[in-house]
TrEMBL record:
Keyword terms of this UniProt record: Metal-binding, Zinc, Zinc-finger
Alphabetical list of PANTHER family matching this protein: ARRESTIN DOMAIN-CONTAINING PROTEIN D (PTHR39490), ZINC FINGER FYVE DOMAIN-CONTAINING PROTEIN 21 (PTHR39490:SF8)
Domain FYVE-type: 35-90
InterPro entries documented for this protein: FYVE-type_Zinc_Finger, ZFYVE21_C, ZFYVE21_C_sf, Znf_FYVE, Znf_FYVE-rel, Znf_FYVE_PHD, Znf_RING/FYVE/PHD
Name of the protein this chain belongs to: ZFY21 protein
């Protein structure tokens, strides 16, 4: 998908030429709180003057003094080319998201193998599941082929095992995914179960499911924006 470089008051962004091609995990730039509406820092209440200047957080758009908005952190969900100024609270969130973009997104794109059961069928098919490079589709390949648009996914439930009363760690072993068929209100369900063939497959599947869980949270946040 073609991209273009655009400049906003917040900085340079590399965005898709067509909005329909944007990542489903993306966020729009927030409107800035007007200068005239914030005579004081919205964090520490310091009064702004000639020496204490105003700065806007690029993630939330609120107004802060330099001390409360000094960190410059990558913000890939808004497609910024360089790290941008953010308040302490937003910087912490963005740092955690950067880990998703640097590590877990690659896991999703590399894919993992699952037994996939469609709807109420009692038959399952071994399929390689991966996220498309443009992050817009969940691609399933086996004897059959499916491409599920990420924005059409309504719910994702991660299935786990291994919980013990003593607080033992759980392990992701599958998921149940529901999505809407484009052009219809019909909801289709798929169940993904990790392959038990090799222990390495189980580990890879668990990592893929953990990444999918994080991706789902980002997807819900984007919709609630």
């Amino acid at each position: 998908d073609a991209k273009k470089l655009v400049r906003s008051p917040s900085g340079l962004r590399m965005v898709p030429e067509h909005r329909a091609a944007r990542s489903p995990f993306g966020l729009d730039e927030p409107p800035w709180v007007p200068d005239k509406e914030c005579p004081r820092c919205m964090q520490c209440d310091t009064k702004f003057d000639f020496i204490t200047r105003k700065h806007h957080c690029r993630r939330c758009g609120k107004c802060f003094c330099d001390k409360c908005c000094s960190k410059k952190v990558p913000l890939p969900r808004m497609c910024f080319v360089d790290p941008v100024r953010q308040c302490a609270e937003c910087a912490l969130v963005s740092q955690k998201e950067t880990e998703f973009y640097d590590k877990q997104l690659k896991v999703l794109m590399n894919g993992a193998t699952f037994f996939v059961t469609l709807g109420t069928s009692d038959k399952s098919e071994l399929m390689v599941c991966r996220l498309s490079n443009n992050q817009r589709y969940l691609v399933l390949d086996g004897d059959s082929h499916y491409e599920i648009e990420i924005i059409q996914i309504s719910t994702v439930q991660i299935l786990t095992e291994g919980f013990t009363p003593g607080g033992g760690n759980t392990r992701a072993i599958g998921m149940i995914l529901q999505y809407k068929v484009p052009g219809s209100e019909e909801v289709t369900q798929m169940k993904f179960t990790a392959s038990e063939d090799f222990s390495c497959n189980k580990k890879l599947s668990a990592s893929w499911l953990a990444a999918m869980h994080k991706a789902t949270k980002l997807l819900y946040e984007s919709r609630d924006q």
